[in-house]
Amino acid sequence: MAIKIALLGLGTVGSGVLKIIKNNQKKIKQTSGEEIVIKKALVRNLKKHQNVAKEIELTTNYDDILHDAEIKIVVELMGGLHPAKEYISEALNAGKNVVTANKGLMATFGSELIALAAKNKCDLMYDASVAGGIPILRTLSTSYASDKISEIQGIINGTTNYILSQMGEKGLSYDEALKSAQELGFAEADPTNDVTGKDAAYKIVILSKFAFGTKISINDFTIEGINHLQKFDIEQAQTMGYVIKLIGIAKNIAGKLFVEVAPCLLPNNAIMSHIKNEINALQIKSQSLGTAIFTGPGAGSLATANSVMSDVIAETSNFVKKTNGQPFSNFSRTMKLTSSEEVKYPYYLSFETEETLLDLSELFSKLEIPVREIKHVDEKTIVVTEEISRRQLQDLAIQDKYLRASYKIL
Amino acid sequence: MAIKIALLGLGTVGSGVLKIIKNNQKKIKQTSGEEIVIKKALVRNLKKHQNVAKEIELTTNYDDILHDAEIKIVVELMGGLHPAKEYISEALNAGKNVVTANKGLMATFGSELIALAAKNKCDLMYDASVAGGIPILRTLSTSYASDKISEIQGIINGTTNYILSQMGEKGLSYDEALKSAQELGFAEADPTNDVTGKDAAYKIVILSKFAFGTKISINDFTIEGINHLQKFDIEQAQTMGYVIKLIGIAKNIAGKLFVEVAPCLLPNNAIMSHIKNEINALQIKSQSLGTAIFTGPGAGSLATANSVMSDVIAETSNFVKKTNGQPFSNFSRTMKLTSSEEVKYPYYLSFETEETLLDLSELFSKLEIPVREIKHVDEKTIVVTEEISRRQLQDLAIQDKYLRASYKIL
């Protein structure tokens, strides 16, 4: 008896799922315990998908899927908060297991949906919602099940990493690099969510739940994208032996949780500095494993579809064993968020004008900011500090109107 | 009701398991579904372990564990083939689930033990047997469950990677680097299994089963260690932009499986080239994920113990759900091994003497070996070929007695 599933959406990822099931049927049956068949797909435009109408029943009406008792797993690939949330809720209430790749949805309504899945004894898995090409959520929930994570750092947005790589290596401007990313399909026509850091922020919210057991919202932390990053600073960082990457970070600082998405300077010799273009990477520091790094494609039809299929296979295997209804991550703990006094990093500071050393020195001295390096370049001023708190940084920004950019050095 | 487990061996890894269970009880209970308690441990010398005798019943008699119905999971950390194999078999026959970190055992008697576990409806897991600090086996069996792997390349022996890093970066001789590794605890007093490549070979046997579903034996492929590697060749590789690493490889070549452990040249800009000292890394190429790299510590008490605990937690979770008895990897397929004509790589060749270009050219021409680069250094000759088959390489070795070393270029 094959397991019947339904896809909500037949776009890039949906087509990837189709292709994988078609190509790897035998292995899928071995690993999941059952044959997996896509019975129905919800689409907006029936005509557009006529090429698959022979294999899959296409419908524009979700009720056709919801009321089909044969369908055991609903795979949500529509994106957006609504009606994705309503469709998933209805599926769970109808006793169907759910797989979703929707990071915005899980970062926003995750707790509610997870509770609903538990209530209905259904599976709700979403490995594809974070770094589709890196099996990170499943790894966090199994291989770190008895480990204590102290920090997770991620290059978790392929679009921005591509743009930064092109700016840093080929000397492109931000606009040129963005255009190149769009031409290659690494950036959408409207890249706002990517370049402002919002996409990475959703992912770090989900990662924080798995790594620290703690539920946060994207309103709880600072999000800075790369849309204000200047080529000048990328070049200056390079001359000092650093690469600028957009990093999502979640870190346990003395029992409290620090979360941020922002451009950061990484030393050239760090492995994370070698993660280029659309590639994603996650670096996890933990008590037992020390430092582990996982890297893979940041996007792409098959990469994301593969994570979706890992979830579909896990849910199928649970269905065969009659063990659906376990949460994707069991780890749960409450952590307070850090205050701005408690977070300390060395910072790269970029000032708009060539400030006099005397003025700067006095201000730094007043704010007790220790300086490692200071230099004038092209009538601008670059300062590298020793470790300072975010509070000190905020005070500096208030008192020196020429401070244009400040990036953590990791 | 806590799950009671027993450890066979209380050495480095065993102490790590103790420490992890003590430090992370709350998380372990959340993630496994039950409290986990070490009830008994088999040791050789009771006196040596008196410090833990208050918490754990120590015994020198395996029957005390085997006949204890309360013990649901036996964790084998003794190493060696015998009596580890007999103890595990008896545990499975007594209906106990088993976790082992024993790569030699699983590479040699894996099939037999896996069949025995299935017969007794017990779990047999061994994530710690390959690259303890990288959760690779569980990842292969879940996140690659619907993907088609074409190649797996690993730096899977920390000792040799440490030695090669020290030789390459600090200019140490092989003997100096080995001594340094021993002083730091990265190499055992008798490093034979590591430096001859045997340890890596065991691991690639297990990886081949998970990545390709195919059972092979260490007698099925070429194993070359680093014990004959000369500093001269490391330096020559460097001047040409390469790093030499000991690589275990398993690759699907036109439907047949190529497996080898040998020193290889990797280009400087490859991420794998930046994996230094005792760190391990695995690079997996697959249809859906393209190239993914996983890196983490190659050894260490807590890193290996963490993988052991992932297995213990998975088995506990199965016990709670009454689903023990599934194989660790369901993937099974028969692949023929490649013949020496079918495997082609570019090669780095090192000749003992300064051969005349004319002699070499004639021989290469006769054997149809295309040359990319040829140079004389210190009265020796270095040749970089284009892609040649292993058969061509073997012919060359027979016909030119001065060929001292040949390394694949990846």
Quick tags:
homodimer, 410 residues, alpha/beta, 14 helices
Provide structural commentary.
Chain A is of the alpha/beta class. Chain A has 14 helices and 16 strands. Chain A has helices at 12-23, 25-32, 63-66, 84-93, 103-119, 136-142, 158-170, 174-183, 192-195, 198-212, 231-239, 301-321, 357-367, 390-399, and strands at residues 3-8, 36-42, 57-59, 71-76, 97-100, 124-125, 149-155, 222-223, 242-253, 256-267, 279-286, 290-297, 344-351, 371-377, 380-389, 403-409. In chain A, strands 7, 8, 9, 10, 11, 12, 13, 14, 15 and 16 form a 10-stranded mixed beta sheet that branches. In chain A, strands 3-2-1-4-5-6 form a 6-stranded parallel beta sheet, with helices on both faces. In chain A, helix 1 crosses helix 12 (301-321). The termini of chain A are far apart. At the A-B interface, helix 1, helix 2, helix 6, strand 12 and helix 12 of A face helix 1, helix 2, helix 6, strand 12 and helix 12 of B.
Shape of chain A: elongated
> Structural class of the secondary structure composition of chain A?
alpha/beta
Oligomer: homodimer
Please state roughly what percent of the residues of chain A sit in beta strands, choosing from under 5%, 5-15%, 15-25%, 25-35%, 35-45% or over 45%: 25-35%
Give, in order, the helices and strands of chain A.
Answer: EHHEEHEHEHEHEHHHHEHEEEEHEHEEHE
In this structure, how is the largest beta sheet of chain A organized? 10 strands, mixed
Gyration radius of chain A, rounded: 23 Å
| Distance linking N and C termini of chain A | 53 Å
